């Protein structure tokens, strides 16, 4: 009886130490939110931090808001089941990240400032094409709200899994706790708070994802012994062309996994970081920092899943496979260290969900409320409308996330495809083809977004929906723009100024 009591007290103490680490981390993030609340005076501050981010904050906040809980949970879960077959996603993501920084970042930064100091992507498109119909504000905003609600919901599911695994909480209560933390500092601090916290979270995620597979391998006797153990357990884990069921991956499946990369050109929560950097001179350094972070982190995420197959004695099945990082962390480290490492998971979730909430709120406040309802709304009113919309959007996302059987990676894949196909071609053509027209962009956004929604439910064959969505959107923009009359001289002249600008 005494040993039972002592064991119970030990468990309670362990949980308490992890809770202390969590509370300290969440308190720090909220403190940053309160600090930047005092510096948020207008919409430019709230949504873009008044365009004054440096290379380090820009790069790490972009990658932290990009990767979210799916890097620490979704990718390791996939690798736990599929081994190096999961590496195709990592390769596609790394290539897409590089292309986005290399070709889009600087030009988008210049163009959004010259296009009326646009604060959101819909506002940029409207100003870029001198649209007076407001369609280039409203149509993109509709798809931003649809897909970001789903994307944010995936983050709340990640939070639910985290608190459920670590503390044994009810899944619904766990989602509410995670969502509440994110909403607080997004609501209070806006972009400046989100960017600074993302920087901290990016650092935490980087070291956590590297630490776990290395420590697990050391506990198994070193890297050589770990590799041998994985080969003995299932040699197919090291074959990137074999799927979990033992069948050979097809060319279409490889294309589907690699196609995650083309989604980067249309992700509003990542593109907004390019808009916020203080000058294009910061972009080369930011690119190097971002690519180092992405390559090492994704490689480690795949390693976590593969090492987990031999480190964990109790197999994880179904959606539980996405808990491999959490379970390994609990087993590997003493409670206080585990609490710090697991805070990195919360960091990943909070960084992306906060960025998504902020972009969705900006779409509602700037592109619906101000455009359709209150054209004369002042800056203070718009900031408060944005904060109210954060609460509403978060509430819907929480409701959708209450299903504990949802795969995080599946939810992210759907939303990722939606943004990639609806906005990727529109952004690329707007930045690089001066013959692009307003009607062409509207057609491309609608075709891309609708294709994702339709392909997901009525696909004639198995192919990641971002591929047909992206292609059809590009074709729609090109064909409709060619059929439309050529843009007026003012639009063409602005395009040429962007070429020469060094903002």
Description:
- The protein has 503 residues and is mostly helical.
- It is 78% helix and 0% strand.
- It contains 18 helices and no strands.
- It has helices spanning 2-37, 43-48, 55-82, 87-114, 121-128, 135-167, 171-219, 223-233, 251-258, 268-276, 283-311, 324-332, 335-373, 379-400, 408-432, 438-458, 466-483, 489-500.
- Helix 6 packs antiparallel against helix 15 (408-432), helix 7 crosses helix 11 and helix 8 packs across helix 11 (283-311).
- It is globular and about 70 Å long.
- Residues 1-12 and 43-49 have low confidence and may be disordered.
Rg over C-alpha atoms, rounded to the nearest angstrom: 23 Å
Shape: globular
Number of strands: 0
Report the average pLDDT across residues.
84
The low-pLDDT segments are 1-12, 43-49
Helix and strand succession?
A: HHHHHHHHHHHHHHHHHH
Terminal-residue CA separation: 72 Å
Major sheet summary line: none
What's the helix count?
A: 18
Oligomer: single chain
Helix fraction bin: over 70%
Strand proportion, as a percent range, falls in under 5%
Structural class: mainly alpha
Fold topology:
Blueprint lengths: L1 H36 L5 H6 L6 H28 L4 H28 L6 H8 L6 H33 L3 H49 L3 H11 L17 H8 L9 H9 L6 H29 L12 H9 L2 H39 L5 H22 L7 H25 L5 H21 L7 H18 L5 H12 L3
Helix pairs in contact: 1-7, 1-13, 3-6, 3-7, 3-10, 3-11, 3-13, 4-10, 4-11, 4-18, 5-6, 6-7, 6-13, 6-14, 6-15, 6-16, 7-11, 7-12, 7-13, 7-14, 8-11, 10-13, 12-13, 13-14, 15-16, 15-17, 16-17
